[in-house]
Amino acid sequence: MPHPTVATSRRLEDVRYDIRGPLSRRAHELEAAGKPILRLNIGNPGLFGFRVPQHLRDAIATALPKSEAYCHQQGLLEAREAVAAQHRRNGAEARPEHVFIGNGVSELIDLSLRALLDAGDEVLVPAPDYPLWTAATRLNGGVPLHYPCPPERAHLPDPAEIEAMVTPRTRALVIINPNNPTGAVYPRELLAALVDVARRHRLVLLCDEIYDSVLYDGAAFTPLAPLAGETPCISYGGLSKVHLACGYRVGWLSVTGHEHRVHDLVRALDLLASLRLCSNVTAQWAIRPALEGPNEIGALTRPGGRLHAARAAVVDAVERSEFLRMVAPDGALYAFPGVDPERLPGFDDAAFALDLLEHEQIILVPGSSFNIAARNHFRLTLLPEPAVLADALARIERELARIARNAARRVA
Ligand SMILES: Cc1ncc(COP(=O)(O)O)c(C=O)c1O
After folding, report:
1. 293-327, pLDDT tens digit by residue?
2. 180 CB under 6 A from ligand 1?
3. Which SS3 state, helix, strand or coil, does residue 202 take?
4. What are the coiled-coil residue ranges (predicted)?
5. What element of type H or E holds 275?
6. Is 263 helix (H, G, I), strand (E, B) or coil?
7. C-beta 176 within 6 A of ligand 1
């Protein structure tokens, strides 16, 4: 008699994280069969030869003997002071008692939504989004409402459109700036208008700023907390991207806003943080040196830097492409090209991603994995060497040409 499978939680039914989903499992199979795969699907700097700045490594090595006990549930005080000081330098009224350190921003996104949401509460999430925001909203009983950030608008949201989506159940407005996957960097006036929407409708602002210093061609980052002022706002940052230390698993959040309005939220976060005791202590010692030391990512994103050249390689290739169109990314570690629907009608991003993996041994992420209805986009990371990216884009073009030829044959 067959063994019945163990039932799993129904909460997971609508929860997806395709960046590490079935496509990625197929890539592992191909690798196991001896086919090397070019992994353009994950923004993981350490996989592409980037090294964590030496002063962060040294800080951890020196502090290792001090890392053997649990620390405060919110994180090491010196690390929280450094986070609060960074926000104060930007003009926000941050304080270490309202900072929480987590095992990556990932853990803190889940923790914050758990602290905020009751079943059926709504959260405004950008589309496309970093899909953990949608997944964690659903996991915590919430309903994501996706507000569009289409390429025709340079992937920027429209505050009036967002306001029209607000209902009595809407609790929070998620902003990802600089944006993953689109690379959009939001102008100050737009952020101020989003704060106004939140203020008028008593929404909590949840601002994911994990790419705050990953900027190209003079783009300027505007932190949200100083604009939000007394409006409740949680700002998220971490070591994974700007400090190239994904594996350290260090992220933080800072709660700002009128003391009376955020009091219970901070208490709820504290309770949830206590339930997991504390985050990894060892890596927290890197936070202060990261925030007070030199900005090493700047050297990579400026002209002459590797990320600058990588972005240029992708922008050039898309400009030359017969099939692709793109709003060039102003920040973050990705490009989000779209296939021109007039050149390839009926294009299906998921089928394309699978074909590209099988034919060209390249893995990227279909655009629909980022919670958009359109099926003509894909995301790739800018982390490989520029020459590797140029070659990858040539292979992508070859696959698109193959699809075009097959379509023409079907018509003939
Ligand atoms: C927008 C955004 N937020 C949060 C995260 C999670 O980062 P971590 O958990 O490594 O801090 C990522 C990772 O790619 C991201 O792109």
Report:
1. 998 899 999 999 999 999 999 999 999 999 999 99
2. yes
3. coil
4. none
5. helix 259-275
6. helix
7. yes
